[in-house]
Amino acid sequence: MRYEELGKCVRGLLRLAENGCREDREAWEAYRRALERLRGIMSELCREWLGDVSERIEVAVVPAIGEYAGPKGVRVLWRLGPSKIDPVTTYAAYSMMTAVAAISALNVETSERLRMILDTTHGINYMPLAAYRALMAASRLISAALNVTVEFEQYNSAPYPRGVPQPPVLDIYMVRNEVITPTKAAQRLVYSYLIRDAGKAEPFHRMRDCLPTTHAELNSLRKKFNECIELHSKAEVLAAAIHFSMPLALLQFSSEFERPELSRLARGIRSILDNLMSYVKMKGDGRDKLVVTHLALPHYDDLKSLLAAASLVEYGINALEASKVTKSDDRIEADLSTLKQVVGEWLSGPLQRVAEHELACFENAFKTGEIPAKDLLSLIERAKKSPGEWVNVDGKCEDQDRIMVAHAGLALRAIEVRAQEELYIRYREECLDGVKKLLRGALKPLRQLLMIRAT
């Protein structure tokens, strides 16, 4: 009976396209209704199959390609119109967005451990690969943003034997497992973010030869991504602070953001993508064949980069809220103990040892005076002679990104210190914009490496 319902939808689309190629509001609305009915039917089946847990089931309809047999002999051929889109990337984009939107809305507590299980026993051609990429990325996004540990597991079965008289009992194998911590996730998300230039991630790609009315509709949808694009353009400094293990930079620049709420953004984007999938061109190709061409679809790397920006901002805010710092005149003031705690708990990356060494130098200079770096020792001695006052190195701000990286963001010409029972550090007010510029510049070699790899 449900199959017949879908058959009526398909027959209706075929009749709509019988008299030529349709790229208009009527065709889009008809296709959207067919997708909604498909989702509804699958939701009904899930409720029948799964009983009590059906309320927590999220059904996603995602784009596919190829020719398939429909009801009563009708055949439907789906095509991807935008030249930059391939089947794996669009399938993964929708799957990832669905997973992030559904899981981030569960109100998971920070202390909880999520278990993400992916079953790739079934799937056509590219689908298992795309599903794996999508769920792994979703695990990292969720872990970093919600500050939870995710246990990712992928299962597959032994091959299904053909021609056996009774349904076989198949062995199930775990083919991959990984424990994803927030810190580990954040470090990996830096690479996901950098695959697109800051502010240049495209929410979706479109066919060039769309009708003017279609372009106007898609332009309106594009504007709904403005918040995500703006966030993407500003998150670069946090990506640098995380990648280079810069504790003061992470706290300072996280304080300049409002929490984006990954769950809210993901739900909004998913709603837009569901709408986007109805923008199609339909053509009847003979009596019983319908050709459906998607006019606009997202790219997995673009969406992953957009969501990574939001997740990194949430991660930075989580670190800030967990730290004992004060903010005065829009600048974060942190003592050495707090900065050490930030490095140990939030910045366990490839340059963690650099940050630990730098903070140890500050601590030795403050407590014992036994340090070969004369400039640092001189600065701290001046601070001790004027307890409670902020002192800095006279002269211009730091202008070399390599020096900022070498000193974990604590280059002497960029900071000022105050001596009390502990040593406090903050950025010089006149140096803040320059520090941001240096951090962005420091990421260029890594971005170029990633772009070479992507091509």
Task: Please name the defining characteristics of this protein.
2 domains, four-stranded mixed sheet, alpha+beta, Rossmann fold, five-stranded antiparallel sheet, 51% helix
Give a structural overview.
This protein has 455 residues and is of the alpha+beta class. It folds into two domains: 2-316, 3-Layer(aba) Sandwich (Rossmann fold), CATH 3.40.50; 351-454, no CATH class. The chain contains 17 helices and 14 strands. The strands form four sheets. Strands 10-11-14-13-12 form a five-stranded antiparallel β-sheet. A four-stranded mixed β-sheet has the order 1-2-8-7, with helices on one face. Strands 3-4-5 form a three-stranded mixed β-sheet. α4 (127-146) links the parallel β3 (113-119) and β4. α4 crosses α5 (182-194), α8 (236-243) crosses α11 and α13 (352-367) crosses α14. The two termini are 48 Å apart.
Quick recap:
The chain is 51% helix and 15% strand. The chain is of the alpha+beta class and 455 residues long. The longest helix is centred in the N-terminal third of the chain and has 26 residues.
Shape: elongated
Please give the largest β-sheet. 5 strands, antiparallel
Q: Radius of gyration, Cα only, in angstroms? A: 27 Å
- Strand order within the widest sheet? 10-11-14-13-12
CATH architecture of the largest domain, by name, is: 3-Layer(aba) Sandwich
Poorly predicted segments: none
- CA(first)-CA(last) distance: 48 Å
User: What amount of the residues lies in strands?
Assistant: 15-25%
CATH top level label of the largest domain: Alpha Beta
Number of domains: 2
Give me the CATH fold name of the largest domain: Rossmann fold
* Class of secondary structure makeup: alpha+beta
The number of helical runs is 17
